[in-house]
Design goal:
CATH architecture of the largest domain: Beta Barrel
Number of helices: 3
CATH topology of the largest domain: OB fold (Dihydrolipoamide Acetyltransferase, E2P)
Distance between the termini: 80 Å
Structural class: alpha+beta
CATH class of the largest domain: Mainly Beta
Helix content: 25-40%
CATH superfamily of the largest domain: Nucleic acid-binding proteins
Strand order of the largest sheet: 2-4-5-7-6
Mean pLDDT: 85
Length: 145
């Protein structure tokens, strides 16, 4: 029993659709570990995340919070509403200091953000878009009260 042209065309479309779905599933599984969602300390406090979820947190380094405990650097990041402790083992960028913007990639463990990587702004003009929007919203709210 030979396939008609119509059945062959439908079979090819179905097979192609299944292959594309399988490829999309493989790509999403491969990138799952490298995807990091940007959150502010306030958003993190409002909706706690699991320890296995990769996050990117941003804010300003609080005055007097930068400490070194052996090889671990500890500091607090704030969005002018909420603050969170960040722990990072390694060498911090030179630009990380009180009053400067910082972005950290990592995980939340027992209410502390354990960073795998810490980034600092490069000059006075650079601020990540999400951080700039968040800071301007927070400063406006603080000015309204």
């Amino acid at each position: 029993m030979a396939m008609t042209r119509k059945k062959r065309r439908i079979w090819l479309l179905v097979t192609g659709g299944v292959m594309m779905a399988a490829a999309a599933a493989l790509v999403s599984v491969a990138f799952q570990d490298s995807i990091a969602f940007f959150v502010t300390p306030t958003e993190l406090a409002a909706e706690p995340r699991s320890a296995d979820q990769r996050l990117r947190i941003g804010g300003m380094v609080m005055e007097g919070s930068l400490k070194k405990e052996g090889t671990v650097n500890v500091f607090r990041v704030t969005d002018f509403e909420t603050e969170i402790e960040v722990r990072f083992e390694g060498v911090l960028p030179d630009l990380i200091k009180a009053g400067q913007g910082a972005v950290a990639d990592g995980h939340v463990v027992n209410g502390v953000f354990v960073a795998d990587e810490v980034l600092a702004k490069h000059d006075e003009k650079y601020v990540p878009a999400e951080l700039e929007d968040m800071m301007s919203d927070r400063m406006q709210k603080a000015g309204d009260t």
